[in-house]
Amino acid sequence: MDLSYQEKSILGSLLAIVVVFGCYFAAVLRDLSRGEFGGTVGRLVVAGIAIVVIEIVYHIVLALESNPEPKDERDTLIECKAYRNAYFLLATGAFGVMAWIAMTGLVRDGAPTITAATNFITVNLVLFFMVLAEVMMFLTQLFYYRRGLR
Q1: Which residues of 19-40 are buried (b: 16+ CB within 10 A; e: fewer)?
Q2: Rounded-to-integer distance, Cα 66 and Cα 132, Å
């Protein structure tokens, strides 16, 4: 299967996001099961730095080994469709997190204190949907590059 420069770029970015944030969220689930809520900020900073470094190195190697192609109307249309799908997923996730916050507030109506667990879960749910939206954007782009626009 011969991939274009854009497809290789998208595939590398997708792989980096999935691996780095897969490890991050696996650690978050492990901490959640243990009831530990510290160290997440440091782990998130490391994940962010890892993404930046991986993307820079990958795109330098990709640009050296293949000839970057200029974007045309098709690329722009594919990006627009991908952003639409990613935004829909992100908005759905945001409304889901807001509903979760409201429901936990109703359940704990007698004790409306916000615990460390609630903050930990809320922040990581928002981050999860942001990462999921990015993955959706990359998958949509790959789909349309392979299938074509009709």
Answers
A1: ebbeebeeebeebeeeeebeeb
A2: 29
φ/ψ bin of 70: left (φ > 0), alpha (ψ from -120 to 50), beta (otherwise):
beta
pLDDT tens digits for 112-145?
555 666 778 888 899 999 999 999 999 999 999 9
Integer Cα distance of 5 and 63 in angstroms: 8
Grouping H, G, I as helix, E, B as strand and the rest as coil, residue 114 is: coil
pTM, rounded to two decimals: 0.86
CA distance 22 to 42: 16
Which helix (H) or strand (E) element contains residue 120?
helix 116-147
- Could you report the per-residue pLDDT of 56-78, keeping only the tens digit for each? 999 999 999 988 888 889 999 99
Q: How far apart are CA 131 and CA 44, in angstroms?
A: 12
